[in-house]
Design brief:
Number of helices: 6
Number of strands: 2
Structural class: mainly alpha
Largest sheet: 2 strands, parallel
Distance between the termini: 33 Å
Strand content: 5-15%
Shape: globular
CATH architecture of the domain at 36-106: 3-Layer(aba) Sandwich
Helix content: 40-55%
CATH class of the domain at 36-106: Alpha Beta
Strand order of the largest sheet: 1-2
Order of helices and strands: HHHEHEHH
């Protein structure tokens, strides 16, 4: 799912970073997966704080229909950007488009 936009060296470096995460951190992270954050999202929506949602359409780890599109519906005032064909690792594979989305969001 990473296509040819990312080098094997970049993949290997990220695997090394993940491998150095402590077991407690890894276990704690997985405990948050079933958490219902809708109350927190409602609080953010009510706050008026500008939000940016960026997600790839080809994310096989956290599918867009189960995450970003739902979040967009819960935060209708958010700036929403879908990156066509971008996988879960879009920060590496689609860095230019992610940076463009962030720059545009911050310049408003």
């Amino acid at each position: 799912n990473l296509d040819r936009r990312i080098s094997q060296d970049a993949v290997d470096a990220n695997v090394q970073v993940a491998a150095h995460a402590g077991n407690v951190a890894i276990a704690d992270a997985t405990l948050t997966w079933p958490t219902d954050f809708r109350a927190d999202i409602a609080e953010v929506a009510a706050s008026g704080i500008p939000c940016l949602i960026v997600h790839g359409t080809a994310d096989n780890v956290v599918p867009i229909d189960a995450s970003a599109r739902r979040l967009r519906d819960l935060l209708p005032e958010a700036t929403y950007v879908e990156l066509e064909g971008a996988p879960h690792g879009l920060l590496w594979t689609h860095a230019d488009q992610v940076n463009e989305a962030i720059s545009a969001f911050l310049s408003v």
